[in-house]
Amino acid sequence: MKQKTTHTIDYVPKALVRHTVLTFIFALAYSTFSFAQDYVLTGEGYEAIGPVCEYYPAPNQEPYSIPNTIVRAREGNETNGTECSNFIVTYNGFTPEAQAAFQYAVDIWANTLSSDQPIRVDATFAPLAPGVLGSAGPTGFLTIFGPGVPPSTVFARALAESITNSNSNGIDPDINANFSSTANFYFGLDANPPANQIDFVSVVLHELGHGLGFFGFASANGANTEGSLRNSGFVHMYSQFVENENATSILDFTDPSAELLNQFTGGNLFSNSPLATAANGGTIPEIWAPPTFNGASSYSHWDEIVFNALNPNALMTPQIGQGQAIHDPGAITIGLFEDMGWVICPSLSVEEFTLESLEVTPNPFIDTIRITLPGNYNDSDFNIAVFDVNGRQVFDKDVSSINRIIDVNLSQLNASIYFMTLEDANTGLTVTKKIVRQ
Ligand SMILES: [Zn+2]
Q1: Ligand 1 centre and the CA of 297: distance in Å?
Q2: Is 250 a residue whose pLDDT tops 70?
Q3: Higher-confidence position of 293 and 356
Q4: Which pLDDT tens digit goes with each residue over 307-316?
């Protein structure tokens, strides 16, 4: 079932500017995945055949509700333009209410992850196998050349395209997703499903999480005597962080082997992603490794017992119950994604979002820019710093807004791309905007 193709993605000069820009953003974000130089796609390590997760409802779980405050705040401010990535969804067979709920889940990810490459999703709403709520996965896994990229490692297509800022497959989908048209779904957006329905937004959010890279190639042989971690010799980036209770990397076990299957089923696997661990209060988060290997859930989820109901990181556990809604990816999953190479959408608090909704005009500019602040910043003090694409500070000034307006003369700058950081002198909140001097 494995396919391997070797076509090479040509490096395009246009990408150079964007890579440099990304380098600076990565530096700001303090990513543990070093993006000091350019990254290029080098080929297709593994073309996915089927979905990576089939999601089943869980019995007897308590209702809970975690709404998404960020998307709601942004929509309340009528500034959808602040999304950090552009998902292009092809909808097949959806009812209007199912499509609206799907789009809401897409908006949550678009407000969570940042990419300069469109993320194309092919979504189908149709009858699935009995009990299956949905399934999704990347359409392929790509190899990348660049500093810090581990050997024999592939990246989910959307992630690979984001890291390298290049397109591997034209307008073909990066993620395939299927959702049951016969399940008893709740299609509301308010994270408040009735006790007898499954929340569709949560299911879509979960499945798209797999499509974006929350997944490892763990499998068991037909006799269930050996485990395998590689496809065509590659591991997925997710597995670079997986270790057991003795801090032994999952990559160190013979593949395939009975011992590897023991690791998959031993109940002692963790992700040592530094950012995920930090988000978990310094404890390495536990991965789902139940005693019986299940190819649709084992290894590629957080532990269902540890991250159970009412835990804000429960989205990527293997089960969801009726009456449960979780509309936030959770800080641990976001941390892992950042360590895997995703750029995280800035301003993940409502307060930061409010500041982020400031407007800079004109942009591109010639000599002077005007910053128009959101409503609660009538007369406030700020520091403005401007950095060039190499991270060098080229401007620094303390300013005050008057009736929400700040005019800044930047005529001394050369024509180029810059990043302007505006820091609220009272709260320390900062927002960074790309500005272009003509
Ligand atoms: Zn799943």
Answers
A1: 6
A2: yes
A3: 293
A4: 986 788 999 9
Residue 206 Cα to ligand 1 midpoint, Å, equals 6
Domains annotated on the chain, with CATH: 14-344 (no CATH), 358-437 (2.60.40.1930)
Dist. CA 321 → ligand 1 center (Å): 13
Partners of residue 436 on adjacent β-strands: 417
CA of 392 to the centre of ligand 1 (A): 43
Q: pTM (2 decimals)? A: 0.73
Q: At what angle do helices 96-110 and 200-211 cross, to 10 degrees?
A: 50
Distance 203 CA to ligand 1 centre (A): 9
Sheet-wide strand order for 430-437: 393-400, 381-388, 416-424, 430-437
Examine residue 364 and say whether the peptide bond preceding it is cis (omega within 30 degrees of 0).
Answer: yes
Please write the tens of the pLDDT for every residue from 396-433: 999 998 888 999 999 999 998 888 888 888 777 777 78
Ligand 1 centroid–CA 73 distance in Å is 27
Distance 275 CA to ligand 1 centre (A): 21
Q: What's the 246 CA to ligand 1 centre distance in angstroms?
A: 26
Q: How far is the CA of 211 from the centre of ligand 1 (A)?
A: 10
* Cα 134 to ligand 1 centre (Å): 9
Say how many Å lie between the CA of residue 316 and the centre of ligand 1: 6
For the chain, helix, strand, coil in percent to 5 are 25, 30, 45
From the list 27, 52, 368, the residue with the least C-alpha distance to 208 is 52
CA of 142 to the centre of ligand 1 (A): 21
Residues surrounding ion ligand 1 at CB below 5 Å: 53
Rounded distance from Cα 303 to ligand 1 centre (Å): 11
C-beta of residue 320 within 8 angstroms of C-beta of residue 201: no
Intra-chain end-to-end CA distance of the chain, in Å: 52
Query: Quick one: pLDDT at residue 218?
Result: 95
If 0-12 CB within 10 Å is exposed, 13-18 middle and 19+ buried, where does residue 378 land? exposed
Give 170 Cα–ligand 1 centroid separation in angstroms: 27
Distances (CA, A) of 209 to 105, 113, 180, 246, 417: 10, 11, 18, 28, 32
CA dihedral 309, 314, 316, 320 (to 10 degrees): 20
Sheet strand arrangement including 405-409: 359-361, 368-372, 405-409
Give me the pLDDT at residue 191, please.
93
Residue 436 CA to residue 438 CA, distance in Å, equals 6
